[in-house]
Amino acid sequence: MTGSAAAVVAVAALLSTAGCGPAVLSDSITLLRLPEGGRLPSALVDDAGVVHVVYFQGEPRAGDLLYVRRAPGEADWSEPQYVNSQAETAVGIGPIDGGQVALGADGRLHVVWFKLGRTDFLYTRTNDAGTGFERQFTLAGGEGVEAGPTVAADREGGVYVFWHTGEPPDAERAVWMTASHDNGRTFEPARPISAAAEGACDCCGLRALTEEPGVVHLSYRGAGDDVRRGQRLLTSRDAGATFEDIGIDDWRINACPISTTSLAAGPDGAAVAWENAGQVFLSPVDRLDKLEEALSPDGSAEWRRKNPAVAVNERGETLLAWGDGPGWQSGGTFHWQLYDADGRPTEDRGTGPEIPEGSVAAVVAEPDGGFLVLF
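Above: the chain's sequence. Below: its structure in token form.
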């Protein structure tokens, strides 16, 4: 038995006996399954080290979003709470679906998703007491919607919600944004923010992050001329008033690859992860002009490497995780690569268990420097 095969068997055996508790994948990486039936996690860690997760559960076209938390030192999740106030209004067919969560001012959580019919973008936030979620409401509607929205928030009351919409062809789609500057109480009218010539790939996910108050990043896949489907980055340094739209890489394909992307904050700035032609890549946001230095895991894959997830700890160490699998709904086999603060691999490329069908992995950095994997 090869070393990688033995690792898969060992992890599978550990998971079969670990119940719902954490399973150790390596010295610095731990896996914790979602509650039974949970898929499509979106996760973050607050200043107290509490892990907050929103995930999908139920019938793929009409399910629910649930919320759990895990305090430092606890082995398992809290009792799940419903996020959506109207039952069965969340979509969870595949990796571009589910809900997205962000942490804003006063420790308030902000959650966005799109609902049955794929036309309304919905929003809620935790209530003033932090004991549950307020009633959901529609932020905006869209035509030709195929991917869920994303949200970012900062500690000064800024909340930024993004999605892409528009009738075919993809070259005429655009990324839209609505922003709140009072911690989600009110939102500005929605408006397009991406470069008109770049389009937006209709079935590809997008992700947002605030690096500091007023600085917002959004990673999305373009669709210029319906064939220029490289990854792109929108950045605002004035709280969403204006955006710079730059190309990260080039991928010429006359079809939507149904891909996802990931952003993470670190001590030296933000990092972005994306897919190109079956390989996953990682780069600091401030070094995207040196694309030849982007990191990608060594070795070959039996299937497409996809759905990258990234997290950065306080030492600047970065975990890049992904799934290898066929078909857009396949979660694939979980893999990871850990890099030090200088971008050097610090462990052999790791292999773990199968990610559930129609799901993805989420990763977060914990206060002790370790990484937690969720799926």
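The CA atoms of residues 102 and 345 lie 29 Å apart.
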